[in-house]
Amino acid sequence: MAEKIYTLSQIAEHKSKKDCWLAINGRVLNVTRFLEEHPGGEEVLMEAAGKDATKQFEEIGHSKAAHELLFNYRVGVLQGYELEDTETSNNASFQEPKKKEMEAFVVKDNGVPKYAALLEFFVPLLVAGSYFAYRYLA
Ligand code: HEM
User: Fold this and answer.
1) How many Å lie between the centroid of ligand 1 and the Cα of residue 26?
2) Which of 115, 64, 116 is CA-nearest to residue 92?
3) How far, in Å, CA of 94 to CA of 96, rounded?
4) Domain extents for the chain?
5) What is the model's pLDDT at position 61?
6) 42 CA distance to ligand 1 centroid (A)?
7) In whole angstroms, how large is the CA radius of gyration of the chain?
């Protein structure tokens, strides 16, 4: 079944607590029944109501579970987006996990300075040790 296409101005008509829509990654979502359940609070959702909230949603670094939750609230597609996954909702979740993988790389990167800090500590110690050993033996 083809999904309904909405424009941003159509979404902007749904920005009250009783009827709250927003768009994330080209998907139009009706989050009215999610407002109270959102772990980040309903205020942030209301601020994004009626708009394209992709940037805010991604900036928070929502979990994979949060990304998967999006499907429960889908009502259509944002105009200008052609989602290959409009028929098979399962595929769609594979678009975002890539970003998560990148975050994992960032975490791994953080491990390097720790190792470097260890070296920075031991190398001068070794040099000083060698110097005193030399002084003592000479
Ligand atoms: C339908 C859309 C959304 C869903 C399904 C959703 C889901 C979730 C979930 C499950 C969490 C818990 C933490 C996690 O699993 O990542 C969360 C936290 C949060 N969300 Fe959302 N969210 C949505 C939209 C938004 C938007 C548009 C914003 C910002 C404008 C937002 C801001 C936050 C914040 C600030 C937190 C708390 C993060 C923390 O405590 O560390 N969310 N959301």
Assistant:
1) 17
2) 64
3) 6
4) 5-92, 97-138
5) 95
6) 10
7) 25
pLDDT < 50 positions in the chain:
86-98
Instruction: Give the DSSP H/E element, type plus range, for residue 22.
Output: strand 19-24
Tokens of 135: 């002084």
Structure tokens at 32: 């009215």
Q: Which residues have C-beta within 8 Å of that of residue 23, sequence separation ≥ 6?
A: 6, 8, 11, 29, 51, 52, 53, 54, 78
How far, in Å, is the centroid of ligand 1 from the Cα of 38? 6
Residue given tokens 């390097």 in the structure block: 112
Q: Give me the CATH code for the 5-92 domain, please.
A: 3.10.120.10
User: Which atom in ligand 1 lies closest to the alpha carbon of residue 65?
Assistant: 15
